């Protein structure tokens, strides 16, 4: 086993990112889609921190980006939950296959 | 040589990725939320391993303690906790898996072909440094994004309340 | 320069009549529409006579030649510098003469129809159509531009169609109007191509410029046009021949004559106006208008014109000897007389004494209008009385229709060429022109004049003498004053018009032509005419069986002539079996399946493709996300690995 370095973390980050995308494309439930989005955002955070530590150790931009992304993700998750609740009220289901009104 | 740090790293990586996979594939919604929780804890652990304790703490407080709880509440609100989720069409899953795999391969190819210079590790910044930087208005300061984030949070709060408001019934 | 307004009013007054009576006549002006139409035309006729007086006597001759005036020229459609379709008025001796003829005959027909068409449901429509026709014909003769004459040519065709098919509930009338329009339209195709060739060769559409450019021997236009040939004939020959084809169709020359006998389905005054005196001479007028081009630049076409005219004359005369419908006899007689006019132009040369044929043709046009209109109106009076067209139902009518009898007799004498009536003088000049230039045509003309006298007097005797008439209690007499007045006026014209020194006014080059009157020359035609009259008298004055014996003796020839030489049947065969089956049906199939099919194909393809594509917008967010992801990956691969 080799010393874990930047590439390993980038591997994890990419894997999480694409896992999140897979979840977003595959899941039929709106809440599970939201969870996949959280995975994506987290992978991005990990990416920023990794680069901050290994490539630009004297600067702190990656760290701040991560901080702000966490704050924004919280806000966005709240708004998404509100929308899901509203959709549930009108459609009585949070199956994303039922929310296809804007079609041809 | 194998150090404790290496083993810890691989354990954390396994936890994160394993729970991530389970979270996106399981058919019980509550279990998906819990798997997400553990995945996020794994990521916080990775932050700890990278010696960025502040971010790790923020991650746990906001993400794990806030967002996942919010998700669990919404699961309860939409009465989804008990039943199994319906199955997705298999061709959709296969196509998505294929696309995702291609994307991942492309990304990793690019990453491994690139030479990153300056791979030495130094001490991570302290909380004091972070605090100073956050509120400084000078060069490289983050006071402006800080204020904007606060306005964003206000807007999000108001938006959530408005969207989720039950419309009042018409009074005769 | 004569006043353009006065002259423009001459055709425009009948047009106003057409519009007024056409729009309001049926509902509001029913009883007075006849008087309105007649009043407008009376004004028009007075203006035409005044213009003629002014032209011939006030403006007179300059250097011994009548001038050509163009009081009005408006550029309408300009194709390029110098080539434009203008609307203009052209005054020269033949157009002024035609103005007088057309407006006078039309006036006579208008007055006559007040009585003949009284009680018709569509009385106002009839007068509006008459107004349209008069407008078109007057516009035709005044046209200063070859395209303008084409426009009015077509308008005349339309008016003729409307008037022949006036009794639209009779299928035979409808069929006849269609036949007339289609045959003349077919000939007009030749006319149009001829116009295009001539205007292309000369670079202009204006008559004066065109004639000048195509007849001066050193002009560039003639040189280039003569060099370019097609199947052995020069471009100008083709152009002139095609223009003649248009004229031949309208003037019912063989073989485009099939529409004229059928056109007798229209009301009799219409036949008098259109198919005797005015429209059918439009072809003759056209040849006369372009006569310098025909005579000086393409004399070969003039030969053809001569022969076509002569053949039409004799064929029509032979057929007319066998027909029993009085209007058809008169129709074939018209065809024969127009044949005379055509071949008179055909044997004429340009300028001086040799241009006798031109003057004779125009003179015959003038006198023929008088006596042919008179014959038709008289036949109308007879038909009005007997209620039948067939001469076998008639006989002994001279006691019951006295005025009609006398005027009809005058007209028959005129057409037979008996002196001193008008037809004698004009026919003499034609025969003289033929004698001087083409002996073969002279003999044909001579024989035809004998036949003319014979069949006209056959008609006369069958109507007014033959067998005694049984009175079946007809309530009305001859017809009122309005029907007799035109007959009398036209009879005066038919009697006196011969004494006009026509050569003074109209000649091929404009200079006065003095016709030398040879007494010895007239012996042969007059003699033949009198022989024809006596033959008819012997056969038809009293009813007997000599005609049937003669017909039986002539056997096959009589049968062929009775069936109009089967020309209609040949046409029918060609169109039905050849054109429809071999050309029409495949063309229709092609149009329906392939042309329409292609258009439908584009429509259907678009629809099918859109049906397929619209499924992309399914409303499912995840599907959009997959497309997005796939697109991003493809583009990333493309940009990283392919397009470095």
Describe the overall structure:
The complex is a heterotrimer of chains A (104), B (172) and C (644). Chain A is mostly helical. Chain A contains 3 helices and no strands. In chain A, helix 2 (30-54) runs antiparallel to helix 3 (61-91). The radius of gyration of chain A is 17 Å and the shape is elongated. The relative contact order of chain A is 0.13. Chain B is mainly alpha-helical and 172 residues long. Chain B contains 6 helices and no strands. The longest helix of chain B is centred in the middle third of the chain and has 25 residues, at 53-77. Chain C has 644 residues and is mainly alpha-helical. In chain C, a hairpin with a 2-residue loop joins strand 5 (229-230) and strand 6 (233-234). Chain C is built from 26 helices and 6 strands. In chain C, the strands form 3 sheets. Chain C has a two-stranded antiparallel sheet with strand order 1-2. The interface between B and C is small, with 9 and 9 residues.
As a percent range, the share of strand residues of chain C is under 5%
Distance between the termini of chain B: 79 Å
- The helix/strand class of chain B is mainly alpha
CA gyration radius of chain C, whole angstroms: 30 Å
Rg for CA atoms of chain B = 21 Å
Keywords:
heterotrimer, A: 104 residues, mainly alpha, 0% strand, elongated, B: 172 residues
List the helices and strands and how they pair.
The complex is a heterotrimer of chains A (104), B (172) and C (644).
Chain A: H1 6-26, H2 30-54, H3 61-91
Helix pairs in contact in A: 1-2, 2-3
Chain B: H1 4-25, H2 29-49, H3 53-77, H4 90-113, H5 127-135, H6 143-164
Chain C: H1 4-25, H2 33-59, E1 61-62, E2 65-66, E3 69-80, E4 83-91, H3 93-116, H4 123-142, H5 146-164, H6 171-202, H7 207-215, H8 220-227, E5 229-230, E6 233-234, H9 235-250, H10 259-262, H11 268-277, H12 282-289, H13 291-297, H14 299-320, H15 326-346, H16 356-386, H17 402-416, H18 422-437, H19 439-464, H20 481-496, H21 502-505, H22 519-540, H23 546-554, H24 556-562, H25 567-613, H26 621-642
Antiparallel strand pairs in C: 1-2, 3-4, 5-6
